[in-house]
Amino acid sequence: MISKKKAAIWGSILVLLTSLITVNVQLVLGDKVLVSRKVFEEYNKFSKLYSLKKVIEENYYTKVNEEDLINGATKGLFEGLNDPYSQYMTKKEFEDLMEYTHGSYSGIGVIVMPGEDGLITVVSPIEDTPGFRAGIKAGDKIVKVNGKDVTAKEMDKAISMMKGKKGTKVIITILRESKEPFDLTIKREEIRLKTVKSQVLEDNIGYIRITTFDEKTAGDFKKNLKELQSKNIKGLIIDLRDNPGGLLDQCQKIADELIGEGTIVYTKDNKGKKEYLKSDAKKVGIPLALLVNKGSASASEILSGAVRDNKEGVLIGTTTFGKGLVQRVKPLKDGSGFKLTIAQYFTPNGEYIHGKGIKPDIVVEKVEEQLPKAIEYIKEQIK
């Protein structure tokens, strides 16, 4: 009979990661607990895990930390999905994630995702941050941090290593295309994300740049749009280049301002159930162009697909990143948490863009020619 402490620890892992059972304690007799057959059978599936833990604790050459073993086992369950977007996070890792979605942290200012090659891939550097100024580009692979090898399996650890006290330095080793790896020494700064900025371009064309979708993005977008409308803009360009995505609800609120009554996106879960995000009849009602590139991912692609499929504007630039999966982020009682891919998403016309991205209506390969092309397109529409 196992101890109460160990039973509680391993029982919590089962409850957390299988989400299949509800523990109904029927009777407590001293140090023994009677549970339902269903609970016992579910627990028994993980008996190997518990047995190996015991072997490690009794035979490993030095003392082991039980919490580290539990975190490693829990992470391993998520890694068994072979899905780079699903992961268990320790309390510190989960706090870092929440810190980013709130819009500020201390680090170098790059957005990364696991690459299909198993390497940490830069989706985009955030404008006006140390990483951006150091020359990090979308598509770069981060292979070392401070001389230590890192891979997509250790992405959270690598991100934590890249963060640090303002003013301190970190060495990032970059692999770019087929070239030899090279080092960049970057001084960390307080990264305060201003995700939306705008201006009026020539011929009264409005321009809004969205760098990511955090908790304040939709509100800031509406403020900027209202200010531009007060200046009687005749057309609008929304720049989503190198925007790695973010919170779906923020994307939904922005799409609702642009496309009129229709479907923004729909998702499909493992049971085939579809859920549709809809917009109301309100829309800007002026010529619209979205700038995109290979650094435009996730929520940026949802917004792009919504505008394109509802025929409210055109996409200009290069093919987007190609992330068509939806994650749910959930905190746990001990401060840890997890991300789990729960559905695929499809553009309003039913296109599944995962792994292939969205090809723009007007392809413009050269970065310096993309905005001028968007201005030219809007001018033609407002003649």
Automatic annotation (TrEMBL):
PROSITE patterns: PDZ. This is Carboxyl-terminal processing protease. Gene3D superfamilies: 2-enoyl-CoA Hydratase, Chain A, domain 1 (3.90.226.10), 2.30.42.10, 3.30.750.44. It comes from Tepidibacter formicigenes DSM 15518. SUPFAM superfamilies: ClpP/crotonase, PDZ domain-like. Residues 97-177 form the PDZ domain. One of its GO terms (molecular function) is endopeptidase activity. Belongs to the peptidase S41A family. It comes from the Bacteria. The keyword Protein biosynthesis does not apply. The lineage of its organism: Bacteria, Bacillati, Bacillota, Clostridia, Peptostreptococcales. It holds the Pfam family PDZ_6.
